[in-house]
Write a structure and sequence with these properties.
Helices cover 66% and strands 8% of the residues. The protein has 447 residues and is α/β, with parallel strands linked by helices. The protein folds into 3 domains: 212 residues, no CATH class; 51 residues; 122 residues, Histidine kinase-like ATPase, C-terminal domain (Heat Shock Protein 90), CATH 3.30.565.10. A hairpin with a 6-residue loop joins strand 5 and strand 6. The radius of gyration is 38 Å and the shape is elongated.
């Protein structure tokens, strides 16, 4: 018995989307950049004083061995300020934050090795150098930003406070540029100057913030980014090697299983069929009735062998999977199950062949285990496609105790999934229920 339903997405299948950062306008970005530059100067001053002091004390006391803990403390202090700067640059550069992997002492290392390991980490010394370099850069960007803000605000507001200047005030700047020094000309001159500074203010402040932020990102995350890329490449190569091994293992397991099934089923029946045909040939002249009975037995054996071969072909590549897709093939599996199976396949499209075959074998193996070992009264099969990932879930109300172990079907299933970049999870406590969940890459097939 098969029940097909189309239910809504539950928490197991619900997709998650990364929150996109909000876009800022010109004024909003100007505020962020200004705050970044103005806050950067006091942070740079504190960092510079502490780092210079720590390095001076540590280097001078190295001969007494006390200098090493001081240097290590300075390195850790620089790491802290560097992490603050990494967080601050995100709002200016609008780039994702890079997680830095610092060098750590191996497990079981001695006290001195643990103490001196930070001193052998290149990224730690880049943090220290940045604490020294950022100070003159922060002073320059702070002064430029302050001058531009003061010129823009002072020029635009000159009509509001020019009257407060002494009557005999002589402003040399308009006169140097060939303008008269009367009040109207002076106010007009500074208002125009303020407008020019106001128009260029967002771009100048943005440039100052970017200079400071890119120097920080280059020194504080450049080596970390390269190290992450190397680690990702190494991990990718290891994953590819593991997938190759898993594919070979899964293929070998499938071939051994197919060979065993052919040997135990159709091959034995064909051997018996050959023997029965030989007996019928001998009986044909002496005892036609016995020969007729033998031929009836041969016909039954042929039908049973044909049925077993059809079952084996479904395990290799069922025609319904190729012709009508994964949803129809899974429905066919559920229809042949020995217990009621409820299907949850909401609008599943045709997928790439590898994904459909892997998902089909996952459901087939899971339902086979349910029929053979669980003692369940019902089962549920659900499939969800979220973007480019297909989730397959098979659950039953049986006794539980399913596990991945060498020589069991679930072990071969795990290898098959791993070979295509998928993963398998099993939750099966001794009292049940059993939940088998697989995730694998899948893309809808273009029409």
């Amino acid at each position: 018995m098969t029940t097909i339903t189309a239910t809504g997405a539950d928490p197991v299948y619900a997709p998650t989307f990364a929150e996109q950062p909000p876009r800022r306008g010109l004024i909003g970005q100007l505020g962020v950049d200004t705050l970044y530059v103005f806050v950067g100067l006091p942070l740079a001053m504190i960092t510079f004083v502490l780092v210079v002091g720590g390095l001076s004390i540590g280097i001078s006391l190295v001969v007494t061995l006390i200098g090493f803990p001081v240097l290590v403390g300075t390195v850790y202090l620089s790491r802290g300020f560097a992490e603050v700067e990494r967080v601050r640059t995100v709002s200016v550069l609008r780039l994702p934050r890079v997680r830095v992997r610092y060098k750590h002492a191996p497990d079981g290392a001695g006290v001195w090795r643990r103490l001196l390991t930070p001193l052998s980490d290149p990224q730690s010394w880049l943090d220290v150098v940045h604490g020294l370099v950022r100070f003159p850069i922060a002073v320059a960007t702070f002064c430029i930003t302050l001058v531009w803000w003061a010129a823009a605000l002072g020029g635009l507001t000159r009509p509001l406070w020019d009257w407060s200047l002494p009557a005999d005030n002589n402003d040399d700047l308009p006169q140097l540029l060939g303008f008269s020094n009367d009040a109207a000309t002076r106010v007009t001159f500074y208002v125009i100057l303020g407008v020019i500074f106001a128009i260029t203010l967002p771009f100048v402040v943005r440039g100052c913030a970017l200079v400071e932020a890119w120097v920080a990102r280059g020194m504080l995350t450049g080596v970390a980014s390269l190290r992450d890329q190397v680690a990702d490449l190494t991990e990718g190569r290891a994953t590819a090697q593991a997938q190759t091994v898993a594919a070979v293992t899964a293929e070998a397991t499938a071939l051994r299983r197919l060979e065993r099934d052919i040997h135990d089923g159709p091959q034995q029946r064909l051997v018996r069929l050959s023997v029965d045909l030989g007996r019928a040939k001998q009986q044909l002249d002496a005892d036609p009735e016995a020969a007729r009975a033998t031929m009836d037995e041969v016909l039954g054996q042929a039908r049973e062998a044909l049925a077993e071969l059809r079952a084996l072909s479904r395990g290799i590549a069922p025609p319904i999977l190729t012709d009508r897709g994964l949803a129809a093939a899974v429905a066919s599996l559920a229809g042949r199950a020995t217990i009621p199976v409820e299907l949850d396949l909401p609008g599943l499209p045709r997928l790439n062949p590898v994904a459909e075959q892997t998902a089909y074998f996952t459901v087939a193996e899971a339902l086979t285990n349910v029929a053979k070992h669980s003692g369940a009264s019902k089962a549920l099969v659900g499939l969800r496609l979220d973007g480019e990932h297909l989730t397959v879930a098979v659950s039953d109300d049986g006794a539980g105790g399913a596990h991945i172990a060498k020589g069991h079907g679930l072990s071969g299933l795990a290898d098959r999934l791993h070979a295509v970049g998928g993963e398998l999870w099993i939750s099966s406590p001794p009292e049940g229920p059993t939940i088998i969940r697989a995730e694998l890459p899948a893309t809808p097939e273009t029409p």
